[in-house]
Write a structure and sequence with these properties.
The chain has about 550 residues and is of the alpha/beta class. The strands form six sheets. Strands 1, 2, 3, 4, 5, 18, 23, 24 and 25 form a nine-stranded mixed β-sheet that branches. An eight-stranded parallel β-sheet has the order 6-7-8-9-10-11-12-17. Strands 13-16-14-15 form a four-stranded antiparallel β-sheet. Strand 11, helix 8 (about 275-290) and strand 12 form a beta-alpha-beta unit. Helix 5 runs parallel beside helix 6, helix 6 packs parallel to helix 7 (about 250-260) and helix 16 runs antiparallel to helix 17 (about 460-470). The longest helix has 17 residues, at about 175-190. The protein binds zinc ion. Zinc ion (ZN) binds near residues 63, 65, 92, 432 and 435.
Length: about 550
Amino acid sequence: MAEHFDLLVRGGRLIDGSGAPARPGDLGIRAGRIAALGTLRGTADRVVDADGAVVAPGFIDIHTHYDAQVFWDRMLSISPWHGVTSVVIGNCGFGIAPTRPAHRDLVLRTLESVEGMSLEALRAGVGMDWPFESFAEFLTAIERRGTAINVGALVGHTPVRLYAMGEEATEREATEEEIGLMRALVRDALRAGALGFATSKSPTHVGWAGRPVPSRVASLPEIETLAGCLAESSGGVMQATIGPGLFLDQFAAIQERTHRPVSWTALLGGMLGPDGHRAILEQSAAMQARGIRVVPQVSCRPLMVEFQLKAPFPLESMSVMRPISQADFAGKRRLYADPEFRRALRERIDDGRIGAPFRDMTITEHPPDPALAERCLGDVARERGVHPVDLALELSLAADLDTRFRLPIFNTDPAIVAELLAHPATMIGLSDAGAHASQLCDACAPTELLGTWVRERGVLALEAAVWRLTAQPADVFGITDRGRLAPGLAADVTVFDPATVGCSPLRRVRDFPAGADRLVSDARGIRAVIVNGTVVREDGRDAVDPEGLLPGRVLRGGRAG
Ligand SMILES: [Zn+2]
């Protein structure tokens, strides 16, 4: 008997996410779920032609920062452009809930600083009257507004610590009582549906007024106690950004105590010297072989940051920059002109690991002299017979600190990236989608993986790459009813053309609240993106009304209600 479907994806190559070989077939969807796979003779209300295309589970991006953007952009652009149907927010411990009303501005100023988001955009976008205080209310607020794709949220150490300790969260260790309060907050969040607990010890994570983000000030016992809440819950993952005192040994201990996976950010090429990644890969594989699920996140894109010296995020972990982080705009200008500050910065750049990347920086925008655009800072400095530091500061001072630079930081050697992507102990993470909006954009990582690393470089088989984008992240993050093509699972599906899939170079647009700018990348070869049975993107365009009813669901405890 011929079946009837709501939606039929016809005539593609099915890659089911498990790593199994592609096979020709159709996919039938009913009531938001996958109803049947194979050669289907049924009728349908709507047919998506997948001839010549791959039909895969919708991609899952486990490392995003849409926590604030979700309140002004229901489409969560640009993730669905690149085939993503589920995102995880709250990474690196930078959520926005729970937050007391009195701390709202501190939370936004932390995001401004640490995630390079425009404060004006954040204030205008989230508004002054937040529709939540607790984590549970935050999830409900997202649900009420609606989103085009699914959203799961980690509960972040930083808002939890700020909630419990106020401004002192950036200054000192917590008392027993405060840790008890934090523990209750994390437990409540997990009960309300948090996917897990997230924290950061990274020295690059500098918050408001140049202070460390709250989680960086936490003791190891505090982190262990909060992560320990995962042991009592039925699921959940720990995500952490590494830093002093929080690395493999600590993760292994936490994992063994909680029996929950730890996914850490990030293992990037060049981060620990030219071969440093190899020892980490070996240790990770050895731990995993013993059943210790500690999984490094890797990225298929070079980490490059565009920045201006009015917000020098990639340089701020150097102690010489501390007075800059604390200064207002006029103060920054004064310091950049100060011979003593310049001498100190020159010395630091010449001695440190950052010297070579700094000289290799590209000048991307210099309003007074557009001819400098896309030129290498070191080359121009040599031509002019000046130090690259002095050149960068002089150009910036002449342009009201609007000169823009692009700094290659890590993951620039394709041979190392290939090794990281192919290694069985790693997982893909760190798209940082939604964060650093004006500085970088790696939300296009899925199409880059499929275009550059599968088709062009042959580093991964198509089936392995699809597994990396779907079932693997779903398994580590406890997302239980999607990530695979199988009857009964949620109908999240991405249809793409393997011969053309890819992403464009970045372009700058001004579509954020308060006219703020951001970088975006366009996708190629993504034919259709289906979320819970509804087509949200088709042939590179939104296929739903961004103001209308949207199919995305909040993934409480890893699944939709
Ligand atoms: Zn992050």
